[in-house]
């Protein structure tokens, strides 16, 4: 099933995509998701980020086979940094060299606490596409990575969740202004999805709608204001976002 | 106003404490919070963590005046690590030396993105008490701190939110089994609440119910299974939690 979150005249809904229209879902995280009966035309709907997570966690040391010699490590991104397909990635004027990282993301369907490691993959609702936007300069200056990973709009996710996909070798392609910047397979990651989920679920509680970003197997793609960035994964579709300049008037001097 | 989140026979509600009973609130984050008219007796209610945040962020380099020479730094804790007053802090059997840190926490009332730095304190709904439980051994091994800060139950918060408190010198007392382990004032922090909020809000979007932990001005208090840990702040009440051993069967070998 292709699970979407959409904005429409009646508000915001979860829905499955039925080929020509959306069929509203009462709760995609229920043990047996139920359709409400409402149908929504794609012309009257806009795709949102497919979840509103409370946890967004990414894997460090997971960009290629060589990383399997390093201990696993994870980092948190601010949950509110998530935006949907088509939403602008805002490059703050106080950011340094900022890059896109195309990644496969696990969407958690139910609570992982007290689930045995062998059963953890049953807590995954499905897969989606994520762009782990990162300020490389800030990452160099902040050993905790907080200043690099969590800026507003730095986690585009979507366009939807595929629940049936079960393959270890998904091709991830990142494009900037339509030009291929990176192409690599999730088979190139240092750790597989089961190892990643076991590591993360030991360190923190996960629950419905949470996202586990599995690492970027390909090279990063530098971003500039005015660019259009896309991340495409086999069988999952393409997540596209414009890149805009943003005046970070929030800022106290760091 | 003292804003609580309570479990009762009718479900889970926000409520204000009116001296002898709770008065249910429709939405404490509304511009003008409105009472529903329902009253609930304390005998029929149990206090929960006063918020269900999407963001929990703490300040590094903020434990005393000497830290003001260091650049500010922030870390994220997993949002689902939050538990309420009376809930057990579970010490996993694979954790190292684990400590309590008593901290004043800002409860965010509305979105901070696009708010000018000078106006950020108006986004704060009120103050509460937090215990930033930390596995010091894991913090040493994981430079990103993720393994140290986000274990299930590692962020007790409560007992409630005080909306009217406006003082820079609040006394924080940490007790273990009733014995004082630490006593210090928020006046001893390297950075004041306005500086902390300006720093954090520049790095990430914050919104209703999010928590900003402001740093522990006093010494840490080691925790063992069987302990009872308390964090008391002048004018905010006491957050008390039992400490239990927990078999972390989640774990893949790290």
From TrEMBL, chains A, B:
Gene3D superfamilies: FAH, Fumarylacetoacetase-like, C-terminal domain. Keywords: Hydrolase, Metal-binding. GO terms for molecular function: hydrolase activity. It comes from the Bacteria. Residues 67-243 form the Fumarylacetoacetase-like C-terminal domain. This is Fumarylacetoacetate hydrolase family protein. It comes from Sinomonas flava. The keyword Protein transport does not apply. Transmembrane segments: none annotated. Pfam families: FAA_hydrolase, Rv2993c-like_N. Residues 1-50 form the Rv2993c-like N-terminal domain.
């Amino acid at each position: 099933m292709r699970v979407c979150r959409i904005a429409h005249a009646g508000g915001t809904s979860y829905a499955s995509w039925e080929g020509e229209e959306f069929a509203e879902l009462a709760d995609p995280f229920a043990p047996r998701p139920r359709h409400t009966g409402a149908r929504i035309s794609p012309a009257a709907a806009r795709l949102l980020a497919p979840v509103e997570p409370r946890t967004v966690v990414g894997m460090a040391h997971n960009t290629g086979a060589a990383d399997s010699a390093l201990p696993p490590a994870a980092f948190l991104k601010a949950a509110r940094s998530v935006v949907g397909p088509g939403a602008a990635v805002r490059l703050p004027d106080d950011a340094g060299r900022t890059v896109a990282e195309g990644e496969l993301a696990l969407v958690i369907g139910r609570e992982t606490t007290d689930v045995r490691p062998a059963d953890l993959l049953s807590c995954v609702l499905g897969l989606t596409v994520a762009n782990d936007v990162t300020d490389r300069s800030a990452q160099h200056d902040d050993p905790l990575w907080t200043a690099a990973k969590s800026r507003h709009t730095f986690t585009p996710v979507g366009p939807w969740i595929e629940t049936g996909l079960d393959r270890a070798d998904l091709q991830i392609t990142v494009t900037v202004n339509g030009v291929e910047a990176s192409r690599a397979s999730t088979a190139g990651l240092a750790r597989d999805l089961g190892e990643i989920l076991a590591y993360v679920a030991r360190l923190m509680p996960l629950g419905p709608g949470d996202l586990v970003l599995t690492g970027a197997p390909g090279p990063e793609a530098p971003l500039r204001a005015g660019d259009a960035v896309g991340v495409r994964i086999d069988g999952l579709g393409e997540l596209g976002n414009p890149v805009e300049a943003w005046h970070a008037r929030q800022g106290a001097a760091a």
